[in-house]
Amino acid sequence: MTGFRPEPVPGQAPPPDSVHPRDSSAQAPTSVSRLNDTIRGFVSNWGSVWVEGEITLWNRRGGNVFGRLKDLATDSMISFRIWSSTLQRLPDDLALGDHVIASVKADYFVKTGDFGFGVAMMKHVGLGDQLEKLERLRARLRAEGLFDATRKKPLPFLPHVIGLITGENSDAEKDVHRNAELRWPQVVFRTRHAAVQGDRCVPETIAALKALDADPEVDVIVIARGGGDPQHLLGFSDERLLRAVAAASTPVVSAIGHENDRPLLDDVADLRASTPTDAAKKVVPDVAEQRALVAHYRSRLTSRLTQRVTHDIAQLEQLRSRPVLRAPHTMLQGRSHELHLLATRGRDTIDRRLDAQARRAAELRATLRALSPAATLARGYAIAHLQDGVIVRDAAQAPAGAGVVVTVGRGSFAARSEGEVAEGADSSTA
């Protein structure tokens, strides 16, 4: 009979099914079924609870959904199941990576010993709640200076290698490659694939960012995703990713959504692109535009050089047309005649001055001769001076017997004084 339990025999251990888990021991163990029934009975007493988290697993099997819900702040998870009858009442757009709240009730499966939660209701977290949290984070990061334009790194004019972080085989990857290669065919990409939503989005994107940032050949990094529901873009507003982007030494371009999608990554990145296509246009220059620009500047340079050369030729011709340059020997001839006249005039002036000075010298010489004692001596006069050179001006200076020297017009001779002579006596006898 079903449910029959044999009566315990004195001196023997009771059957396991009859032992309650609280009363079990090594001598009287309980059975697995009894343990599972006890656990299920305990769990069934729990009521329903509302829980908030992120869907990290969403598998459909036979019309039912089996998944996992992850805590937004930690790595804690729970497993859940949604029966097909319940699934019909839930929103159709629930998907992996969604931020949801769910009404769940604990359940324990006695056959397998698995613990899980059955979902009675599940819906997206109100956008207002999410926006409020993002705005608080935005205000905090802005206060720290992560949005300041002064810390934004400029993009290189023509990057040699572009690092690309995007989903594998995604439209965003194709758009970036196609538009960049159309603008600059020689562009080189170094692509790292990462999940663009769900629980793997943030860690995989951070890992790809660090790998590309450490690559010395990568000049700029583009993080691209082709837009989507705001719920799916929450990973690109995660604080961990934002701080990793702010700490990167390589310029980072955010190309996450469409024009109206503004995750916080757009504010922290060095440049925001509205779409992956826009990112390609901002990262690499258009070769056609650059060629046209080079042609334009080349034309302007040729025009300016032509104008300058033409102007200089005209100036040169004007200078060459002047008489002095057309026949330079005429200027030399005129200057030569002028120089000859000046030289002749100079010689005449010098000759006149020399003649005048010669006459003046002759006059002075004649005057000097007239005043010279030699001229007086030449007329017969003589000068007598004593042996010590004193000129005799008074006869008393030369008493009788005194030796004197007499200087005449031609030479001198010695004489001896005979003393003072009387008045009227012949002076030649002295």
Automatic annotation (TrEMBL):
Residues 146-364 form the Exonuclease VII large subunit C-terminal domain. Residues 7-18 have a biased composition (Pro residues). Keywords: Cytoplasm, Exonuclease, Hydrolase, Nuclease. InterPro entries: Exonuc_VII_L, Exonuc_VII_lsu_C, OB-fold_nuc-bd_dom. It is found in: Cytoplasm. GO terms for biological process: DNA catabolic process. It is an enzyme of class 3 (hydrolase). This is Exodeoxyribonuclease 7 large subunit. Residues 31-122 form the OB-fold nucleic acid binding domain. It comes from the Bacteria. GO terms for molecular function: exodeoxyribonuclease VII activity; nucleic acid binding. It catalyses: Exonucleolytic cleavage in either 5'- to 3'- or 3'- to 5'-direction to yield nucleoside 5'-phosphates. The keyword Hydrolase applies. One of its GO terms (cellular component) is cytoplasm.
